[in-house]
């Protein structure tokens, strides 16, 4: 982030992120990442997506009903250690209560209503994938929306993740299999904008299983 001009607001930056950032446990239908949180941050990820469940005085990081072997405090400790080492960086974190425990979590952490206003380009059903080509077209539509909203008063978020779980035709499309098809396509799609001066802004792009090359491609969009 030290290489980004100081005059550029957050809403004018393209930021690589992960969807369900801590989802490294639970089997093929649940796992969305392979890198640990520490390794994600060191690879260039600057947006984290967390779902939490409240029990006692602790917020546990979840993916659906799967406990991801971490608490919110563990995540924040890791992020703080990273930021202490790399002082020019910043990390955005989206924290949401898991749907089955919203009231309890909100009572424990009323600050869910604070933070940066967010535009999520997803529409209902975007995460369900029965045809990967259709998913590519949906992502293009979302990224076009994100470009139009860049530079405003909101952070703009696009999820490129998807799963065929729960659909008939895509029942074998796990998050990893979707990412194996989507991520190389996304890398090429974003690189077509490199000759543009200035390069377009796409806001936060939250991905499943992003590799180093894709993360660097997203970061490279900020070089004018």
Main pleated-sheet profile: 4 strands, parallel
Spans with pLDDT under 50 lasting ≥5 residues? none
Could you state the CATH homologous superfamily? Phosphatidylinositol (PI) phosphodiesterase
Strand content: 15-25%
Strand-pairing-aware structural class: alpha/beta
- DSSP summary: helix tally: 6
How many β strands by DSSP? 8
List the helices and strands and how they pair.
Layout: E1 15-18, H1 37-43, E2 47-55, E3 58-63, E4 66-71, H2 72-85, E5 92-97, H3 102-108, E6 118-120, H4 132-149, E7 155-159, H5 175-191, E8 204-207, H6 212-220
Parallel strand pairs: 1-8, 2-5, 6-7, 7-8
Antiparallel strand pairs: 2-3, 3-4
Q: Explain this structure to me?
A:
The protein has 224 residues and is of the alpha/beta class. It has a single domain (10-220), classed as Phosphatidylinositol (PI) phosphodiesterase (TIM Barrel, Alpha-Beta Barrel). The chain has six helices and eight strands, in the order βαβββαβαβαβαβα. It has helices spanning 37-43, 72-85, 102-108, 132-149, 175-191, 212-220, and strands at 15-18, 47-55, 58-63, 66-71, 92-97, 118-120, 155-159, 204-207. The protein has a four-stranded parallel beta sheet, with helices on one face. A hairpin with a 2-residue loop joins strand 2 (47-55) and strand 3 (58-63). The mean pLDDT is 90.
